[in-house]
């Protein structure tokens, strides 16, 4: 029994600008196009590409790689037990007709809310550039942007300000509305009222011009009130530093372990931007297997039950396209599996791949 359906519109940690983070989330098996997105790094262009790729399901599924091979077989990127399929669920696609672009616009129209993890461009760019369409012809629709105050303030002041982008948030007739969430506070999802969404603040490195200033990001915990099941979708994040007076990731894990039992926790989508060999000083507020595996072990310990996370779906996002002979996503996947195995952590690791839909 699945509760959440997550289509990956983008999951790269850059520098490729056409595939950055955006997860389209809806209740499993829903037959209409309403959805919410966590982050907006990808949008209508990627939706159109996904719709057109999925038309020809007869070909063996290959994933763009551009390393040792230009394309790699899809099954290398997923745990063999993980419920994941190419494209949008067929029920949804059957509901829309006409050409691919018009169909993509209908999917865009269906996005009712964005939950932004932080205001870095790779998490908001397509949401911003797509926004005029919310005022346009067949696409007219209201959209709500949500996030913690540090994210919403940055988007309002530095993006929709008539200089970087037209201030489409202005005025009561605006189709784009922006509102802040409160940290650790339960927020009832407007589009899917059966869901509560809780934002948890985490660390994401330091400023470049002001190295003493902290950068923050957000983890979203989704809880389905009907079934009690939940998933966790993370923005960029790093491990807590020993000097941190506020160990935010530890607090987040603590909150999650207290509010959802490990049996009801269906999956975690979390970043692992760089491979193990990367020095801590070169991570710039991100994760590598060296830090992610201990972090998952820490969450397991919070449940105070051995092997509490057995078979949990852990989907890795935001891998950087580093210079390499082999696809960094495949390197990181192997490193995570090896390091987890060595510490008796029995989760199922997969990679978030653009155009694939995971069931949780
Ligand atoms: Zn970031
Ligand atoms: Zn990022």
CATH top level is Alpha Beta
Helical stretch count? 8
Describe the main β-sheet briefly. Answer: 8 strands, mixed
- Any low-confidence stretches, pLDDT <50, length ≥5? none
Short description:
The chain is of the alpha/beta class and 360 residues long.
What does this structure look like?
The protein has a single domain (4-359), classed as Metallo-beta-lactamase, Chain A (4-Layer Sandwich). The protein is 23% helix and 25% strand. It has eight helices and 17 strands. The protein has helices at 44-53, 90-94, 100-110, 125-130, 149-158, 248-259, 289-302, 328-342; strands at residues 4-10, 22-27, 35-38, 62-64, 71-73, 84-86, 111-115, 143-147, 176-180, 187-188, 195-206, 214-224, 230-234, 265-271, 313-317, 348-351, 356-359. It binds zinc ion (2 copies). One zinc ion (ZN) is lined by residues 13, 120, 122-123, 236, 318.
